Amino acid sequence: MADREQWISRRGFILATIGSAVGIGNIWRFSYVAGENGGAAFLLIYIFCVALIGLPLVIAELAMGRRGQGDAVAAFTIGGRGWPWVGWMCVGGAAIILSYYTVIAGWALKYFAGAATGSLWTAAGEGFGGYFRKFIANLGEPVAWQAVILGATMFVVAGGVARGIELFNRWVMPLLALLLVGLAVYALTLPNSMGGVRFLFAPDWAAFARPQVWAAAMGQAFFSLGVGMAIFVTYGSYMPREFSLPVSALAVVVGDTLFAIVAGLAIFPGVFAFGIDPASGPELAFITLPQVFLRMPGGIIAGIVFFFLLSAAALTSMVSLLEVPVSMAMHRLGMRRWPATAMFGVIIFIIGVPSAMSFGALSHIRFNGGGILDTIDAAVSNILLPLGGILIALFAGWRLGRAEVLKEADMEDGALGRVWLWLVRIVAPAAVLLILLRKLLGA
Ligand code: PFF
Predict the structure, then answer these.
(1) Which domain holds residue 334?
(2) Looking at ligand 1, which atom is closest to the CA of residue 256?
(3) Residue 225 CA: which ligand 1 atom is closest?
């Protein structure tokens, strides 16, 4: 495709890619998964997984994408045989992830609107727990917010790679970083905030011996980076030859990890300052934090900023998830960008409706005790993303020739390339497989 779209600037590409990685996973999911799995010990294991598995996979995905110069399926076609199916799995997987991710993003947007207009704070009388549960059980409201934030995502994607996705991220990502740092600095000035810092940085050594903590850290690493669903393959396909691939990948991985840590510093000090239980599960953001904000001096502003951050970070990730099927439709079905965006936007909205209703009208549908949204979320982070990660690692490591893949990854000579290849060929697939099998066998 001669007229394939490209990123205009290296900075824009890196910001868009960090925008894809940074999302609800960093701000909301990281905090509660860390809270449930031993705080600082979890953080160390997490960094280990990100460095040895996440980073090599991001490099592999970007290299495959730039090499293929097409959609997720095109990146695998040279492998022949069943390989293109892996590309299709990624396209379908990205659509499924987006369908339920949009629902949570919609909750965040509703809370942002509520915090800004004040209706969230007046609801405090009935208790934030009741408020949240009433909202998600409502028939129409979660679906309406789901539609609004998906519409915004479609608007950005329809604008194109450079004039939509890149431009949007160039503005939003620096703003998010600034606001998050501001929120963390503010939270750290609260009296008794040090309990939260200790929680995040003082290791509980016993957690290292618990296999579930390792599994949780790996699941979180995949989800937070967004690796394993060909998102970086798609973004990599718009990457000009002259951008250095390992440097870009490193910036993304470091940026994503820093966002998660600073988000932890924005969240836990407040939670501890008011003596609230940090291991509050998924309701941390929507029930615990509003309580914290209400007690902080100036907390209303902090609350508005927090829910803005959560919605905007979700939006930049949703854009990348939508781009995977849109790029497929453009490349493979010859569609133009906006009809492709409209078509997949509608399909993804419809697939997401059962998730949006899974705490209300459809709350009776349960799998192993979990509702629809929770079940899809668990299947995605425990099975789908790791499976995609293994297949991508095997493809880049073994199916593409050694010389070719090193050239495509801009690491032709030197020890760095050898280490990377070893991680992609052996360490990443073996480690992920081990954890995946344990999970599947219920050990
Ligand atoms: N990385 C995004 C986050 O941290 O919220 C979400 C995400 C994107 C997850 C893409 C999975 C994925 F394939």
Answers:
(1) 10-441
(2) 4
(3) 1
